[in-house]
Structures are given as C-alpha cells and as structure tokens.
Amino acid sequence: MSGLPDYLRRPPRGMRDWLPPQFYALRHMEETLSKVAEAFGYRRVETPVVEHFEVLAKKAGQEVVNEIYYFKDKAGRDLGLRFDMTVPIARVISYNLSLPRPIRWYYFTKVFRYDEPQHGRYREFYQFGIELIGSASPRADAEVLQVFTQALDAVGARSYIVKINDRRVVDKLLERLGVSAYRDVIYRALDKKLKLSREEVIKLMAEGGVSLDTAERIYDIAEEMSIDEAVNVITKLDSGLGSFYNKLLKYLEAAVSLDKFRFDMSIVRGLDYYTGMVFEAFAGEYKLAVGGGGRYDDLLELYSGVKMPALGFAIGVERLMEAVGLEGVEKPLDYYIYIFDDDAYPHAVAIAKRLRSAGYSVVVELGEKNLKEVFEYILKIGTRYLIIIGKKELEKGVVKIRDLQRREEFEKPLSEFYGTT
Ligand code: HAM
C-alpha cells in the first residue's frame, strides 16, 4: 500500500490520538472533575505548554529533569515542555504577588514527560489537579485530601486507597535509629516495598550497610498502618509533628471516611519539591498510582522570593480512566435527513435549522448516497432518527420519520417544523 509508512501513521512514541468516543470520555472526566474543584471554590487556570527550561529544572529533581522535553527555539532560547502544572503555577504566582491568598486554582490539561512508555506511562498525558497556595494550616491539608477523594468518588473509582506519608516522619525515625547516614539506601529500599518481599527489602537495606536488626525494625515500623496508629507513632517520634497530624486527623475525620486512608512510609514521591505530607492513590487492581500530591512549602519562595506554604495534587487522567474502565463514550447523531432530489433541499435545510436550534444534532444528506447506502451509514455512525422527505410526502405535506432505536416509522406534518421559533 502506498502512502505513509506505518510508523508515521501513528502518533510519536508515548503519545495518543483521541478519536471522538475517547475524546468524549475525556470530556466527561473533565466536566466531572472540574465540577468537584469548582464546588470547593477552586478556579481554573491554564499556562503555556512551553516554559523556560530554567524554570522547569529549578526544583524538579534529577530524575524528572531527565524527563523534560528540551529544545532551543529559533532565537536560541532554552525551552522545555511542562512536566506538571505545579511548577508553571509557582512561576505565575511569582509575578502576581498581589493576588489575595490563599489562592485556590485547578487545571485539567496536558503535560509531557520523556519517560519510557509502557502501560499507564505516556509521554503526553492529561493531569487534573488543584493547588492551594498560601496556607500552612492542617485544615488546608484536610481540604486538599477531601477534594482528592471527592474527585475519585465523582468519577466512580470505588475501591481506592490513599496512602499518606511524610518524609519528616521517616527522617525522624532514621535519626532515632541512628541510621540517618543510610537515608538514600533506606528510601530506595522502602520504595520497593510494593514490588518485593519483606526479606528482599530488608536485604536491600542490609546490603547498603544497615544492620539486619535495624533493617527489620525499619521494615516493621514502615508497615502500612491506619491514620490513628500513625498519629501515635508520629507523636512518639516528634511531638510537634504529632500535634500537626492530630489536628489533621480531626479535620479529615469531620469531612471524609477515614477507611480510605492509610499511613505508609514507603510512599517516596519522585518530585523534589515536597516538604511535608505526601500522598498517592491506588484504585482497585490498577498497579500504578492514579494520583498523588503533597506539601511543597519552599517551592514558591524559590520562584518569587516570598515564603508561601502550599500544597496540591494531580490525578493522571488516562490512568484514572483505565482504572475505572471508561474507554469511550458514543455520541449518536439525533437526526439524519434524507432527500431524493434538490426540490426537497430547502425543506431539509429548514427542518434541520429548526431541530438544531432546539439543541439536536442534525445532518443533511450530501446527495451522494442512495437510501440503502444511507441506512448502512447511519447505523454505523449511530443515529436516532432518519427523516425522509420524498415527493409523495411533500405532496401530502408530511415527512417520514424512522425511529431507529424503536424500529418504528411515522409521519409528521411539515407544518410542525415551520412553527415560530
Ligand atoms: P506526579 O505523581 O508526578 O505528581 O503525577 C501525578 C499523577 O500523574 C500520577 O499519580 C499519575 O497518575 C500521573 N502520571 C505521572 N506520570 C505519568 C505518565 N508518564 N503517564 C501517565 N500518567 C502519569 C505531580 O505531577 C505533582 N505536580 C502533583 C502535585 C500537585 N503535587 C502538588 N501539587
């Protein structure tokens, strides 16, 4: 076959085309998730897909910097595609310092990461997220977690779990155990907790220089626990942190059911800007996190010179769609109007106009198909009604309407379509 070779017919690696059914499913997600954010008083923002590379690279962490789509424009500027929305929003705030705080913003938009594509890992994907900027209160943490779970509920994610962690807690624990020097090794080992067995994780720590005894203790303390238990553990480690989590627990409890939450010290987030609580959500059998977020109290200062505590989350929209099994939404046509010749064309157009202004989708036949071909076509594209305007019908002052769903046919006077609009 001539034309483009197959690899050029497909989008670039790790990217996808959105045909109408998939796009309508995406739109459904956008509408549902936006409604949740709006209901909490968040307002939508958008920023350029392209950012100054320097802005992107500032606090992303080496792993993410390596994933930035980087290029020079024709004037030699170093640019890159945004890998999330938290960083661009931090830049926007840096020259909008007079905005009344706290700022509540949300987004539903494309981000880019030059990651190794595999199931659930794309190079271009959508994120829905919120950022709450300018509050250090544990009520802000509770609010963000509440919006997060409400967003997951709204799209029908049923059996999900939100795992919370705080690097400060893990660091305190390591300090207590006298193994702060092995922080990186221990973090890396804990990060593998979902994938490896207890013995294997302990072995990783031991190989990194941690005594077997301590490695076992770390593993057992880092076992997933309820938020209640976690508050006890945290209070023993550090009373200040304990009191923060105590308050957070109270606020959270007032708003949402706590069964969805677990404290899990193996949640090590990839981005470098986090400073406090972090969290990730896992839905049903889906292996990868469908969303994640946390506090980044130092990031804004880095961009604007002004200290501004902040936190937020982002949900990976494609992953969430896969997790809830939303593949496509068909959008059938309401009316297809078929005429046999040009004489009926003015009637077809007038009827179409009337129906469209009533909010229906209407297609008028272009005159290249016979009735049999039209039937085949409209069944394939999905159509509710076929209106046929023939000579006989026109003489009688009616049109023939076929209800393709109910498989019924009836006539309707033309005058019904010519009433006042
Ligand atoms: P993140 O964990 O890097 O956080 O990404 C958020 C979500 O985006 C992930 O949980 C995942 O569902 C989705 N995601 C990440 N990488 C990919 C990929 N390659 N393909 C498909 N989906 C992906 C952030 O981006 C932070 N900005 C979240 C945040 C907002 N923290 C505070 N405010």
Descriptive overview:
This protein is an alpha+beta fold. The protein has 17 helices and 16 strands. It has helices spanning 6-9, 20-39, 53-57, 62-65, 86-94, 138-154, 167-176, 183-191, 198-207, 212-221, 227-237, 239-255, 299-304, 317-324, 345-357, 371-381, 391-396; strands at 43-44, 50-52, 70-72, 78-81, 103-112, 124-133, 160-166, 261-263, 277-283, 291-295, 310-316, 333-339, 362-364, 383-389, 398-403, 408-413. The strands form three sheets. The chain has an eight-stranded mixed β-sheet. The protein has a five-stranded mixed β-sheet with strand order 13-12-14-15-16, sandwiched between helices. Helix 15 (345-357) links the parallel strand 12 and strand 13 (362-364). Helix 8 (183-191) runs antiparallel to helix 9. The chain starts with 5 loop residues before the first helix and ends in an 8-residue tail after the last strand. The mean pLDDT is 94. Histidyl-adenosine monophosphate binds at residues 84, 86, 113, 115, 120-122, 125, 127, 129, 131, 270-271, 289-294, 296, 312-314, 316, 318-319.
